[in-house]
Design brief:
With 222 residues, the chain is α/β, with parallel strands linked by helices. The chain contains 7 helices and 10 strands. Bound molecules: adenosine-5'-triphosphate and magnesium ion (MG).
Length: 222
């Protein structure tokens, strides 16, 4: 993944808000990178660009050899579904679907047959230690367990890149550490992880920490 001179601006009436300024950054496959910085510094904006959820106002983004700016919205959404997994602070599970069906969801959009979907979901839930709770509704799981379901869901399509925006932000320290242990295992198995965190403690597990201040990288760009 390579970002070159990325800018993100928002036009608001008479002003132009510069949210990201001249961000250049390379993340190699298999790396575990954390992003830190004050609230409002642009971390989520950067993560959304990395995850192709949002496009930069200017600059270039190469994702696994593809120039993202040259892709249509449809191609971009395809790339996102196939190659990128997301984990958020608020687990974003569908409350009426059990854990297994939540994990199956991205596979439904990819038109994978039901029996195969189920098999993958069970496998992923097992991988995050929830093999015995696959039929529970989110409301019947603890916060840490819900986040594990969200990680299993992010992994279902076997993404090359896992993006996590403060994945332990809503969890107590002990549960947060358990989630970090899972992310470290995933990293060891070869997945590229980029994670936003407010916790210096969580950051110590990364290969590299990037620090953003007022939309600019002030540390860790290489
Ligand atoms: N759609 C938008 N229009 C205008 N400004 C926006 C928009 N989205 C985000 N911003 C602004 O961009 C800045 C960076 O926001 P961002 O969400 O990236 O910060 P963050 O570092 O993730 O903060 P936090 O730690 O609180 O999650 C903020 O000042 C925010 O108000
Ligand atoms: Mg944020």
């Amino acid at each position: 993944m390579r970002l070159t001179n990325i800018n993100k601006t928002y036009a608001t009436g008479e002003f132009t808000l510069k949210i990201l300024q001249d961000i250049s950054l390379e993340v190699v496959e298999g790396e575990f990178v954390t992003i830190m910085g004050a609230s409002g510094s642009g971390k989520t904006t950067l993560l959304n660009i990395l995850g192709c959820l949002d496009r930069p106002s200017s600059g270039n983004y190469f994702f696994r050899g593809q120039a993202v700016e040259s892709l249509s919205d449809k191609e971009l959404s395809l790339l996102r579904k196939r190659d990128i997994g997301f984990v958020f602070q608020s687990f974003n599970l569908l409350p009426r679907l059990n854990a297994r069906r939540n994990v199956e969801l991205p596979l439904i959009y990819q038109e994978i047959p039901e029996s195969r979907r189920k098999e993958i979901a069970m496998q992923m839930l097992d991988r995050v230690g929830l093999g015995k709770k696959t039929e529970r509704l989110p409301g019947e799981l603890s916060g840490g367990e819900q986040q594990r379901v969200a990680i299993a869901r992010a992994l279902a399509s076997q993404p090359a890149l896992l993006l996590a925006d403060e994945p332990t932000g809503n969890l107590d320290t002990k549960t947060g550490t358990e989630i970090m242990d899972i992310l470290r295992e995933l990293h060891q198995s070869g997945i590229t992880i980029i994670m936003v965190t407010h916790s210096p403690e969580m950051s110590t597990h990364a290969d590299r920490t990037i620090i953003i201040r007022d939309g600019q990288i002030v540390e860790g760009s290489d």
